[in-house]
Amino acid sequence: MYGEMLDPITRQLIDLALAEDLGAGDVTTAATVDPAAHGVGEIIAKEPCVLSGLAVAGAVFCRLDPQLSFQALRPEGDRLSPGTVVARISGRLAALLAGERVALNFLRRLSGVATLTARYVAAARAGSARVRVVDTRKTTPGMRSLEKAAVRAGGGCNHRFHLGDGVLIKDNHIVAAGGIGPALARARATAHHLLKVEVEVQDLAGLAEALQAGAEVVLLDNMSPEQVAAAVALNQGRALLEVSGGVTLATIAAYARTGVQLVSVGALTHAATDVDLSLELLPPAADDAAAPAAPLLHRQSTPADWGAD
Amino acid sequence: MYGEMLDPITRQLIDLALAEDLGAGDVTTAATVDPAAHGVGEIIAKEPCVLSGLAVAGAVFCRLDPQLSFQALRPEGDRLSPGTVVARISGRLAALLAGERVALNFLRRLSGVATLTARYVAAARAGSARVRVVDTRKTTPGMRSLEKAAVRAGGGCNHRFHLGDGVLIKDNHIVAAGGIGPALARARATAHHLLKVEVEVQDLAGLAEALQAGAEVVLLDNMSPEQVAAAVALNQGRALLEVSGGVTLATIAAYARTGVQLVSVGALTHAATDVDLSLELLPPAADDAAAPAAPLLHRQSTPADWGAD
Amino acid sequence: MYGEMLDPITRQLIDLALAEDLGAGDVTTAATVDPAAHGVGEIIAKEPCVLSGLAVAGAVFCRLDPQLSFQALRPEGDRLSPGTVVARISGRLAALLAGERVALNFLRRLSGVATLTARYVAAARAGSARVRVVDTRKTTPGMRSLEKAAVRAGGGCNHRFHLGDGVLIKDNHIVAAGGIGPALARARATAHHLLKVEVEVQDLAGLAEALQAGAEVVLLDNMSPEQVAAAVALNQGRALLEVSGGVTLATIAAYARTGVQLVSVGALTHAATDVDLSLELLPPAADDAAAPAAPLLHRQSTPADWGAD
Amino acid sequence: MYGEMLDPITRQLIDLALAEDLGAGDVTTAATVDPAAHGVGEIIAKEPCVLSGLAVAGAVFCRLDPQLSFQALRPEGDRLSPGTVVARISGRLAALLAGERVALNFLRRLSGVATLTARYVAAARAGSARVRVVDTRKTTPGMRSLEKAAVRAGGGCNHRFHLGDGVLIKDNHIVAAGGIGPALARARATAHHLLKVEVEVQDLAGLAEALQAGAEVVLLDNMSPEQVAAAVALNQGRALLEVSGGVTLATIAAYARTGVQLVSVGALTHAATDVDLSLELLPPAADDAAAPAAPLLHRQSTPADWGAD
Amino acid sequence: MYGEMLDPITRQLIDLALAEDLGAGDVTTAATVDPAAHGVGEIIAKEPCVLSGLAVAGAVFCRLDPQLSFQALRPEGDRLSPGTVVARISGRLAALLAGERVALNFLRRLSGVATLTARYVAAARAGSARVRVVDTRKTTPGMRSLEKAAVRAGGGCNHRFHLGDGVLIKDNHIVAAGGIGPALARARATAHHLLKVEVEVQDLAGLAEALQAGAEVVLLDNMSPEQVAAAVALNQGRALLEVSGGVTLATIAAYARTGVQLVSVGALTHAATDVDLSLELLPPAADDAAAPAAPLLHRQSTPADWGAD
Amino acid sequence: MYGEMLDPITRQLIDLALAEDLGAGDVTTAATVDPAAHGVGEIIAKEPCVLSGLAVAGAVFCRLDPQLSFQALRPEGDRLSPGTVVARISGRLAALLAGERVALNFLRRLSGVATLTARYVAAARAGSARVRVVDTRKTTPGMRSLEKAAVRAGGGCNHRFHLGDGVLIKDNHIVAAGGIGPALARARATAHHLLKVEVEVQDLAGLAEALQAGAEVVLLDNMSPEQVAAAVALNQGRALLEVSGGVTLATIAAYARTGVQLVSVGALTHAATDVDLSLELLPPAADDAAAPAAPLLHRQSTPADWGAD
Questions:
Q1: Residue E130 at interface with chain C, using a CB cutoff of 8 Å
Q2: CA D149 to CA F24: how far, in whole Å?
Q3: Left if phi > 0, otherwise alpha if psi is -120 to 50, otherwise beta: which for F116?
Q4: Mean pLDDT calculated for residue range B163-189
Q5: Are strands C262-264 and C240-244 parallel, antiparallel or unpaired?
Q6: How far is residue F294's CA from residue D248's CA, in Å, rounded to a whole number?
Q7: Which residues of B touch F307 (CB under 8 A)?
Q8: Is it the case that residue A288 has pLDDT exceeding 50?
Q9: Which fold has domain A119-270?
């Protein structure tokens, strides 16, 4: 996602999600709703949560029917109370009903990621005001950039986006390269000069070896808070240190307290569940004559959502 | 998904997932691993769970490198204990490392859905041996057919796949059509003759009205087990009855006990989290001369996974 | 197709049709027509027919040049006389000329389907006021939803759209399942609860077996009107009955008279031929100053045609 | 279509056709047929016809399931009698059943085009042994190259494929360019040097003007055979002459007799209807052990069908 | 490319180019630029050149952000001096910065082709006022139609676009067909009647044979100007003659002087290098209030650039 | 490009290139070459050059006809003399002829980039044995990863691939952020922890400011070798230094001699022109019986070329 604009993968995922939910068309609505009828709906939080994904929810509706007007009422990252109205959509009622499920499936999951992230960040803050809670690559297939944005919305930070924008040398790479030293040397010779090299170690001996080989970032894998504290002491500020593996809401403060700069938490994305947001239709107003105005409003408000498609 | 073959949406989702995780390429592996090196990995369960998604995990690897051999060792729906090896992959080590994360992201989530479903089904069985625990359209964008298969793997049943293969008349449709009777009549006139018509009702009065209008299936929305029992009595076997809304592991047996035929549970998909499966590389064998044989095995075992692409 | 919006397959088909007809560009028009010249054309019926496909014809023009204004003047399903003007298009002359053939290829075929359907429906009405004349899956590749809409435009009804939204058990399925009874039982256990199960039978014995097994719909394959009448008598209103196979304009009334609810006719789509509609350019008006206004009209009238692309 | 290989548009059309016919999967077959069961089917002509489209029918099956073996038994353009077996398919029974309809929809229509073309060519031969019966751009959207191949299979010849591989100046172009002379001159200056320029004329005066302007090909639009004979006399062998408009099976011989080189007939494609070919499953053989051999046969026989995808 | 509209291949290439340059987003701009900030940039020539590709450069910006306003200030084919402002873009500063490189990569290369073509055309004019300098199929993958337009912008003419819109019989075809005569005869029988047939020959004997066989166009391969002059004399105006192979800026005039109609030069596209055009941002104006007007201007000026996408 | 496998963008570009060059098919070959004829061709260097792009050239042929066997005979980066045979292709003659142009268009350009890079690297070596000659984002649209591989083949190194895998703060970013210090601070806070931050400066004052702000990499824009030498002195080894702008073959040694670690040269890609490689068909052998063996060879040698498509 670039600024307000959706990236190509997200746009393709929206199309897949609409295709799988519409099939050959919404037979119920086709049977019962006048194709010309106009409606207005509101998306409303049903439980306390952190908002993320309103842009993609809006894009779902506008992709389905470019005449729909989607108005975001709360910003990404907003803390919502039950009952908060976060968006208003108006236009053809049939399109509202057809797009509802897909839009909510995105929004509910992304807000779930943001909400869970916010809990981890709050817990970490109890240990350190400066530690970064970062995500992993354990994201939902096709939703990497959306979920990484949700992590940011919840107050977290991102790790690398994919295998191409950061070097992270793990056990198998070390074995294949013949040791930490050779692996680091080969990574520096091959990767371009704007990528840093991170090495995963299992214990203090590994850390010592990595530091000697000049590692810029070291991942401390599955260590206890005590081991991490010892690692911080050993490091003496030379490398960035990242704690990873087995971090929970109960333990993150202890890790943060050690002084490591980064704690990565796969659960931010792989253990998040939906939060409850739903779409409610407003009762039809008396002034249906206002309907024709909607497309004009839409034309002004939505193209930026769709971006470079 | 058709039989062993993956449907077009799933294949596109695999491509999106690989694209978002590979970026311009796996710079770490490119730096540290000999492109010609051969490896063997095993996917292993780390906690008790129900298996789902091995076919799509295999497709991820084969999509990345058609020379990889992916061998499924356990069937869809299998109950796994920690340590169970569920699949073996062999081929270029660099491809194994590059595909690992995406394959696991699919497999862990789908097995998570199957595992949660199995828990709901077991709980429901305490109330009734015959009740169907069915899913909803609250699925992950792009994974509808995969998650519906996971529900089946966990012992659940599917509701309609999308808006086009079943008529489900909700409140807004009833308002738009001018009542339950007109809505049902219009649905029958419009939908083709192999689709049944289901109507959502909030109370016994609604059920009575729906039955009078000839509804074939009625969704009882957010009713208590007691209300559902009354509904079953009122129904007298005329319509299929589906309970929906607010069903939990704690309450599902009570609902099942009422005699309704169907209990739908959105949580099967929207509240599922990953179960822990991981990929472990085997230490390199002495007989690397065996490597050339792998492609032949692969050619026999994998084309069906990729199906009609 | 959902409401006024075109479904993804239709949009892709439009793109294929434009690609195959434009090649590297319209060399004749490029050589002879001023790129800035403005024109107005009308689509006119040249023979009596039933209109279908104006939305897709308009989408072809707007896909080629979003600045074109396409104005539909007659509704889907309208009965046209020779000379009736059904649509008016204005905008860049070069785009009008480039899009003409593809737009008409769609419109002429779809109106052909609607027209042939109307003849079958009229013939069936001589036998019964209530029988449904339904289509089959013998449609033009890529045009399934368009041709099914054309059948509706001609007064017909649709059968299932594809293999996924209805169960239709044929001979081979019965053999594979080990009889009508087991086939029906397995279909009910597997299909979701909003799909009805139809069984194809060849004779009265088959019908009896199907009814005993609880078939909800039975397809009477290649039976004479007399056999069908006997089948209706045997059925006693238990199952929906569908006549299929060898139904012609000459025999459909006799079948309708038997009291079956459904008569399916493959010829509606596989034996339809084009009806004659053509595009005629209006002589250039004196008031070319009016041209700039067209894009504004277009902006208001066409986005809905393109829907969720 | 290049040689045995299918062009990209055709491959995309196959995908659209499979997508629209499969929906979320073949629920009937899924319920009743063992996914591992093996079957053999034959495609058989049910009426006399000219064969076209076997390659695309085979591609449909192989696209659906690459393990299927498709064996073409008769060549493109073959004259078939009722009962002729034109192809044999073996492999997974479920895939055979799922692909049957789409494959036949292609094959039946294309053979219909070839058959109708053969009738026009035979009729034209009564008037001239050398006249070319050529097609037009009035083809089914997405099937241009397939239908043009079917025309060749029926003994016809092709006109230009699209707007880019031939210059055909019609009335509107002449008006826009300011006369036949200027239009021809601009076309020669703009088009590359391997494209010929054809001009459409309505009468002998038009022909005279076109010849004077140096037209290489002239289309005689909607003239009677007598007018065409006069045109041939006037032409004195200078330009190629093409008759177009209103040619029927009854009149084509008279046109051919005039000595024109080309008669174009839109009906070859826009008035063709399906011919009857169907797929019949062979009864299961005793030697099911032979099934595993099929994939090997398939691997040898089918990759060329899929070509450059 | 059709008129002002971009063809589908060009649009897809724009998407590939944006995808490969944006990756997961412009991290620098995301960090440093206010997403709502507005900017204005100008594309300026830095050296004398012939302009080509402004439409595609504009399309890049508008594809990235449809809200951007792109205003072309100089026409295709314009001769530019250093300092000439050729286009002005206004809108979100972040989008300007993100699209700059891709837009310039297109524009600089295409203007390079136009500029080199203009040099060849000027050199050829020294030998003949009427000779056509034509391109070849040695174009950049994916940029065929753009580079052919650039050749026209530079004063050159196009050869056939691809293998389908012209017959060019080379040595291997002659060998395969069994001689020039049979090759020509088979080409005429197979190709449609609006395609001319060109034959490649290596010497005067080949030319004589081609002329005797009735070749309409003959390609003289790698002959000296003297040999070409002899070929012109032998030809006596019967066939169009094309010189090809080894033509340079130093020798083109000598070839042109022989009287051949066509000289093809692969170097127009395969030896062109970028010319220097760059984008400069204007200092922010005081009247930022003008920003909201931009989208309106954009709406009027750009949709035609994007054409039928 | 990942290992031997082609990335998705490259595969899509191959498809675009084939589509634009084939049009509706190779009419010349269709007319003159027996579709079943077998041929063998060799790709041969015609001038001294550095080889790059053989994998993509092979992929072009195999994409067109998967039955073709493509055998690479020389490795990427090989120094070729005129006459060197770099690859052998065998299979259907018609496919060889149809794919030749597209395959060569890729190979000739990429080898041109590798060859030009090798010249720059050799020139730089005269100044320093350790300096990295790096590329820029001035690459051909759609060929970014291929051209970056060609730069490596020529002995150069890569800069960041795109806007997402490295932070490069330029003038406009500095202005927008309010100075070098704030820009750097915001970049570090926003970018993930594996990305380094580079700042572009115009003079020594800028360098001093950047160093003070803690820049890890500094781009020295358009400075003379003398200024660069002063910058190296000022830097005292703190930041990586990159020279950029106006570097030529004549000046690169002088820049290298200053001790900067990196010299970036846009010309590597934007000023490269094709080198001459061509395909020559071998005369048909007597033993055509060998033809059937080719597909088997192909099956073993090519799947890896096509990778994860």
A1: no
A2: 12
A3: alpha
A4: 95
A5: parallel
A6: 50
A7: 64-66
A8: no
A9: TIM Barrel (3.20.20)
Residue type, B113: V
| Block residue for tokens 């750009």 | E302
Task: Give the number of C-alpha atoms closer than 13 A to the C-alpha of residue A207, restricted to the C-beta side.
Answer: 25
**Which residue do the tokens 């052919």 mark?**
E148
Instruction: Note whether C114 and C153 are within 8 A (CB).
Output: yes
Structure tokens at B287: 């007989």
Catalytic, A200? Answer yes
Indicate the angle between helix axes B144-153 and B8-22, nearest 10 degrees. Answer: 110
**3 state SS of A22:** helix
Sign, CA torsion A243/A247/A249/A250: negative
Q: Where along chain F do the CATH 3.20.20.70 domains lie?
A: 119-270
The CA distance from C185 to C183, in Å, is 5
Q: Chains that contact F by 3+ CB pairs under 8 Å?
A: A, B, C, D, E
Per the DSSP assignment, residues forming a β-bridge with F45 are F277
Could you read off the pLDDT of B204-237 as tens digits, one per residue? 999 999 999 999 999 999 999 999 999 999 999 9
Compute chain C's Rg from CA coordinates. Answer: 23
Partners of residue C169 on adjacent β-strands: C199
Residue partners of A293: CB distance under 8 A and separation at least 6:
none
Per-residue tokens: B200: 């959502």
Nearest to C176 by CA among D93, D289, D27: D93
From C160, C192, C193, residue closest to B192, measured CB to CB: C160
- How does pLDDT run across E59-74, given as a tens digit for each residue? 999 999 989 999 999 9
Q: Does D23 touch chain A if contact means CB atoms closer than 8 Å?
A: yes
Pick the CATH number of E8-115+273-306 from 3.30.70.890, 3.90.1170.20, 3.40.50.720, 3.10.20.580: 3.90.1170.20
| B221, B238, B257, B276: the active-site residue | B221
Beta bridge partners of C71: C88
The structure tokens listed for A266 are: 């796969």
Handedness of CA D66, D102, A17, B165 (dihedral sign): negative
The burial class, CB within 10 Å (0-12 / 13-18 / 19+), for E250 is exposed
How much is the pLDDT for E28? 96
Q: Residue E293 gets which letter from DSSP?
A: G
Whether D221 is catalytic: yes
Residue with tokens 């911080």: A232
Which ipTM score applies to this complex? 0.91
In chain A, residues 163-202 whose CB comes closer than 8 Å to chain E: 164-165
DSSP letter at F5 equals B
Residue with tokens 């300007």: E96
E138 counts as catalytic:
yes
Supply φ then ψ for residue B232, to 5 degrees.
Answer: -60, -40
| Alpha-helical segments (H) within F53-193 | 54-64, 93-125, 144-153, 171-177, 180-190
C293 in helix, strand or coil? helix
Please state, in angstroms and rounded to a whole number, the distance separating the CA atoms of residues D120 and D134. Answer: 10
Token pair for residue D211? 């010849």
Query: Residue C184 burial (CB < 10 Å; 0-12/13-18/19+)?
Result: buried
Nearest by Cα to C270 from C135, C160, C166, C168: C135
What interhelical angle do A54-64 and A93-125 show, nearest 10?
Answer: 170
Assign 3-class secondary structure to E129-192: CCCEEECCCCCCCCCHHHHHHHHHHCCCECCCCCCCCCEEECHHHHHHHCCHHHHHHHHHHHCC
DSSP letter for A69, please: E
Q: E301 CA to chain F: closest CA distance, Å?
A: 25
Instruction: Count Cβ atoms below 10 Å from residue F109 Cβ, excluding itself.
Output: 26
Reported as a single tens digit per residue, the pLDDT across F156-204 is: 999 999 999 999 999 999 999 999 999 999 999 999 999 999 999 999 9
Q: Tokens 């998705």 appear where?
A: F8
